[in-house]
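FORM 7B: Structural annotation worksheet

SECTION A. Query
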Amino acid sequence: MSRRTSRPRQTSAARTRTASAAAITPASPCPCGLPASYADCCGRLHAGAAAPTCEALMRSRYAAFVVQDVAYLLRTWHPDTRPPAIDFDPAMRWVRLEILATTDGSAFHTTGTVTFRAHYTDNGRPDSLHEQSRFVRHEGAWVYAEAVFVE
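SECTION B. Predicted structure
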């Protein structure tokens, strides 16, 4: 006699998404592109450390998309512009981040911007997102406020 479970079957796309997110371990190179392990770089921000600059927050948010850390993404999004939820597209895989420019966003500022290009594949087809993100201080911490899509 076979035993059935009430668990839904996972599609191959969902298995791929889970596998790619699970491929990042604390010892893995950080997805943000800096020469450090995930644990020593963006992983510590995901675990609760404060981002010291807008660029650090941008990099850690990109890494959060790679590892699908919804809680971190929502926590670092300004409450006035934060969506109620984030859904990950199972056909999309983030592959590389390029920081193109930053303005302000240090410990001495209350606002800043980061212009970047995030490379991804969608159903295996390469593409990229070119954006300028605006960050502000909210309750003492840097948060993502809004974006202007460059292309």
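SECTION C. Observations
DSSP finds four helices and four strands in the chain. The longest strand covers residues 125-138.

SECTION D. Sign-off
Analyst initials: ____
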